[in-house]
Amino acid sequence: MLRVAVPNKGSLSEPAAAMLREAGYRQRGDGRELVLQDPDNGVEFFFLRPRDIAVYVGSGRLDVGITGRDLLLDSGAPAEEVLELGFGGSTFRFAALPGTADAGVSALGGLRVATSFPGLVAKHLAEAGVSAEVIRLDGAVETSIQLGVADVIADVVETGTTLRQAGLVVVGDPILRSEAVLVRRIGAGAEAGYEQLVRRLQGVLVARRYVLMDYDCPVEAVEAAVAITPGFESPTVSPLRDKAWVAVRAMVPKRDAQRLMDDLWEVGARAILVTDIHACRL
Ligand SMILES: Nc1ncnc2c1ncn2[C@@H]1O[C@H](COP(=O)(O)OP(=O)(O)OP(=O)(O)O)[C@@H](O)[C@H]1O
Ligand SMILES: O=P(O)(O)OC[C@H]1O[C@H](OP(=O)(O)OP(=O)(O)O)[C@H](O)[C@@H]1O
Ligand SMILES: [Mg+2]
């Protein structure tokens, strides 16, 4: 059985379970279950702290897991990301009181940096050639400056609300852009069920990002129309009873759908319909 690590708590837990459910896997009904068998799909799920997942996967005890890119890099475990999952997006940044390090990362030399991601921060500082003291805290690091434990913090920033409330401003460029990723041990073999899991998750990503667009098009406008909706391989063009028209079907990115409908209308397409995709395998 393929052994899969899934976040048991925190920001990644609910969207990870939703994605696996959408991919046809069983998921727990009770948030306290720690292990769940899905014999129909040949998979066993282990619900673990997202911070620990790369460690289990890197050790080879579990085959694959869902965690954040920031947590993967912080762990230093011998695991690599194999698929971006499109949720849990955040940036990882330095922040401080205004006036502390306005010149950016180069101004952090000699300062104390509090973070719950010491591995990630130490590596970034070393690469930037900056010598600063890294102080490891478990969370709520924004408060550490006010309490005199640190001069600077490095933390996850999503909306920026927490930083603003603490009166902090970002320092320098983002250290990292993170999102939820599927991780696997570096150099792992081909476990049964692994390729199927990846294909199913890719299918969910495509079904979420794409819609199906159908329209009727005058024959003389087909070239212009299919240039607007080229699809993945090639759009389906079917004859209609009226020989002057054809029907076209193609997948298009969901976020572009309205603009593409305007463009199609301009070249003469009519009866333009958009339908959600519930599942797919490309
Ligand atoms: N607003 C957010 N706050 C924290 N982590 C976030 C946020 N948005 C996305 N993430 C991502 O979630 C992962 C952290 O998850 P984790 O469960 O450890 O922390 P959490 O969501 O802060 O939960 P908790 O603090 O309750 O443990 C990281 O990969 C991080 O980039
Ligand atoms: O930019 P924002 O949208 O405000 O989100 C970022 C904040 O959310 C997380 O904290 P969390 O609530 O998980 O508390 P923690 O620091 O104790 O983990 C993170 O550590 C930041 O503090
Ligand atoms: Mg947190």
TrEMBL record:
Catalyzes the condensation of ATP and 5-phosphoribose 1-diphosphate to form N'-(5'-phosphoribosyl)-ATP (PR-ATP). Has a crucial role in the pathway because the rate of histidine biosynthesis seems to be controlled primarily by regulation of HisG enzymatic activity. It catalyses: 1-(5-phospho-beta-D-ribosyl)-ATP + diphosphate = 5-phospho-alpha-D-ribose 1-diphosphate + ATP. It comes from Sporichthya brevicatena. Residues 49-203 form the ATP phosphoribosyltransferase catalytic domain. Pathway: Amino-acid biosynthesis; L-histidine biosynthesis; L-histidine from 5-phospho-alpha-D-ribose 1-diphosphate: step 1/9. It is an enzyme of class 2 (transferase). This is ATP phosphoribosyltransferase. The gene is hisG. Its EC number is 2.4.2.17. Its main location: cytoplasm. It comes from the Bacteria. Its cofactor is Mg(2+). Residues 207-278 form the Histidine biosynthesis HisG C-terminal domain. Belongs to the ATP phosphoribosyltransferase family. Long subfamily. GO terms for molecular function: glycosyltransferase activity. Keywords: Amino-acid biosynthesis, ATP-binding, Cytoplasm, Glycosyltransferase, Histidine biosynthesis, Magnesium, Metal-binding, Nucleotide-binding, Transferase. Feedback inhibited by histidine. It is found in: Cytoplasm.
